[in-house]
Amino acid sequence: MTLKECYAALGGDYDEAMGRLRSERLVQKFVLKFLEDGSYRLLQDSLAAGDRNEAFRAAHTIKGVCANLAFNTLLASSEKLTESLRDGKPPQPGEEELIRQVDEHYQNTIRAIRAFQEGATG
Amino acid sequence: MKNRTTRFLFISLVGVALLCVCVFTFFAVHMSAQSSAAINQVGTLYMSGVSQQTAFHFENIMKLRLDQLETLVASVSDDDIHTDQAARGELIDDAMARDFPYLAIYKTDGSFEMLYGSSLTVIDPVPFLTALSQGEKKVAIGTNGAGEKVILLGVPASHSLTHEYPCAALVAALPVTYISDNLSLDENDEQMYSFIIRRDGTFVIRSFDAFRSSYFERARAIYEDVNGMDPEQYIEELEAAMVKNEDYSNEFTMNGKRHHLYCTNLPYSEWCLITFMPYGAMDDVVTSFTSEWGTLTIFSGSIILSALLLVFYKYYGLTRRQLREVVEARESAEEAREAAELARKEAEHANQAKSEFLSNMSHDIRTPMNAIVGMTAIATANIDDPQQVQNCLKKITLSSKHLLGLINDVLDMSKIESGKMTLSMDQVSLREVVDGIVSICQPQVRAKRQQFDVFIHDICTENVVCDSVRLNQVLINLLSNAIKFTPEAGQIHMALYEEDSPKGEDYVRIHIQVRDNGIGMSEEFQQHIFDSFAREDNQRVHRTEGTGLGMAITKYIVVDAMGGAVHVNSQPGQGSEFTITLDLEKAVATEEDMILPSWDMLVVDDDQQLCESTVASLASIGINADWTLDGESALDMVTKRHRRGDDYHIILLDWKLPGMDGIATARRIREELGDNVPILLISAYDWGEIEHDAKSAGINGFISKPLFRSTLFNSLRQFADIDQETEQTAQAEARRDLSGKRILLAEDNELNWEIASELLGEEGLELDWAENGQMCVEMFQKSPPGYYDAVLMDIRMPVMGGYEATQIIRALDRKDKNLPIIAMTADAFAEDVKRSLDCGMNAHVAKPIDVREVMRLLAKFIP
Known about the structure:
heterodimer, A: mainly alpha, B: alpha/beta, seven-stranded mixed beta sheet, 29 strands, 51% helix, rod-shaped
């Protein structure tokens, strides 16, 4: 699995990422780094703890990382979740759905990267 | 008064001049007459002397001759003559010896018996004979045998020289020339000549150019005028004088020349000697003397006249100057009096106003003070009731704020009155000023449910040099007055427009207009609105708080300190309108080249003015925009273009629209177009309360009124794929070598940090990582001054966010506390940008990281 195929699998824009980071080496490096990023865990934990401000910040970070890496699918859903969580608002109707969507996209992204990782290393 | 003096002077001058002329003319005429009279007199005296001399001479000659003849008569006896021929011969001899050319015996019958010489005849025998008969010696004129005139000398003789008639006299005759020669009558002298005439006018001796037989004829023929008489009258006078045996003197004109004549009777005869003298030389002398005298008179007259004129002129000038000085003195005295009066009134008025103000102020200050004291007492009494205490504290806070406002105004005013208020000029963004004002006024406007609009017309020069604090103060004064004096649900309108300044290209003229439909002001009050301590109609306004100093301070700042102008236009019950005009220097810093791609945009607002000015501003940043006034038509336009496959790139929607409001319209547009087209909501208000609705309706962001060019640009640029021109300038700026610059990067996410570090490191920057805001502040504090060249600041970080960290850094006591801080965040709403800038950051860059943009901004802000 190439990096490009990986991007296609996770719903990202490979060309955009290349445009920003300029080399495949860097794109690969950061994409792999995404696996270690703790933001999603923080989001999950904060939501579970009911700390909506922290959850907002975590979603915001995910959004920022995805923007940098051009993970556009996850970017879109995390952005919606960020706005939903913004300013410590009480839970909005449909927020559960947003959380579920972010989770789905995140898992999808992780899967794609893992697949690529295995392909690259293996 | 001036005219009277001038007229008097003029009349005096003319009068004196006339008098001068009269006196001198009189003198001249009089002297001339006198001199001619003197000449006459001299002439007469001279002539009479000469005439008498001549007559005397004549008498002597005649006497001599007659004596000789008498001797002859005595030498013979009566008888001898008759009888003795010898005696007769002796007589003849003696006579001849005595040179008598003729000798005769004159008989009583009037005939002559010639002793020798040719026969003689007397021309007028009667008087001759009569005189001789009476024994007088007599001289007469007669003719000889040749008809020539001779002088007959007769001496009475009693001799009976003849037989028939007794002898009357012995007569000898002499030629006429004898007399004329002896008397020098015939000397052809130009100066003087004489005639001897008989009483009938016939000439005895004529000389000079006389050829007529009678002098009277001569006079009739050639005398033109005899001292005012015609010749005939003259002749009568002369004859009368001759008969009376008197001397006669007169003057006449002959051949145009004046002559003097003197007539005297000659003794022994019936003759007159007339002597003539032409005025000639004497006249010339006198004439020249007279003309000299006249010239002298005129000359001296003119000297005196000019002296008089000079004196009058000087005196006139002097008078006029004195008059002017008097008038001036009076005028200045009057002015001074008026000024003093005015000053007194002003002082009285000011004093009165100050007293009124003091009493108002003491009331005004006492009111919040009372509240503070009272509330403190209540709070103390209810110290256990947190609700009550909180309530009291709230009221105390309000009153304190109010009191502070009053005190600030009074301090400002005293600063102004002592001339200590100065401006601190700095580069100011009009946009920021107006933004700030709007957000300050919002709560008050909302509290009174007033409608507040801000209009920006074609502001091209946003950055000007001004004292932003004082400008703010002015605008807040105007707006808070408008809010204060406008009832609930009233309208307040603020407009800003710009034109070329008469002060030159480096200046721009800004008009700021604040209009309300509140209670307005009376005409009289408008006159005093800018006076210190003024407040209209204490009854009515007492309800309203304030010192009455606001407008005086405003006027001072705008007019006296900034050199601008304030205009008021107001009618009681209708509202007020204040217009401020300022000529402000354009800021030196060039504005960014604000150009966006040539998008098609739609502007929807119910105010046509706003639509048009927004479209114009958009055009100036390169965007083509349509506009419409309500949501329904906007939806139509959007749908039509969508069907053509030619969507608008961005839509600006006003929140408050007639019918369908902005949010509803946005929702409908989203239903039609999906999520592709960004929709921004225009709002003058804090959008906190509508944000949720707006977001859920699919609105991408907010854009705050007033819509400055830069507001539009900054809000819209986030939607721009980097425009070519911007890119070029960006590249140009990024090309600046920043390698070795040390950047502190605050970013909580490691992955993001690594990306940024990797990308920016490649550009030669040295980066230090701070995991959150607090670490960022600490690292900055520990670094030596000037160690970091800039900070890249994430906004959403744990422990301490970017806003707070920036504020702390800016507040540090370090020389480099103002280093460039650039926000880097995934929040791309306009309000995030604004907040970053409000916190003291220099710029804002959106995630995902765009190295070129970051480098451009760093290059821009790192000195």
